[in-house]
Amino acid sequence: MALLNASPRATRAQASLLETITVMSADVIEKAFITIPLLGKNLEEFGIAADPELSRLLLRAITEFTRAIEISAPSADGLVRATP
């Protein structure tokens, strides 16, 4: 599981969610946990994708998440492809 946090101020909410999903035996991929500083930026999906810092953070999290899937489920190879 990856966690994407849209506000640096929401640390308690993210920690609580992490605790809940851990108790539920979720496969937690810590390298795919990121905080994207969107607070006050008023961006939609295209604006986030166009922002170099935000898109870099998202790409890193998605890449780590994809790699974890490929490693844990070799049969997923071809369904997801990690960026080298």
Write the layout of secondary structure elements.
Layout lengths: L3 E2 L5 H13 L10 E2 L9 H6 L1 H21 L12
Can you walk through the features of this model?
The chain is mainly alpha-helical. It has one domain. It has helices at residues 11-23, 45-50, 52-72; strands spanning 4-5, 34-35. Strands 1-2 form a two-stranded parallel sheet. α1 links the parallel β1 and β2 (34-35). The protein is flat and about 35 Å long.
Query: Unreliable segments (pLDDT under 50, ≥5 consecutive)?
Result: none
Query: Proportion of β residues?
Result: under 5%
Domain count: the total is: 1
Principal-axis shape equals flat
Average pLDDT:
84
Biggest beta sheet attributes: 2 strands, parallel
Rg value: 14 Å
Can you tag this structure with a few keywords?
84 residues; mainly alpha
In short:
With 84 residues, the protein is mostly helical. It is built from 3 helices and 2 strands, in the order βαβαα. The mean pLDDT is 84.
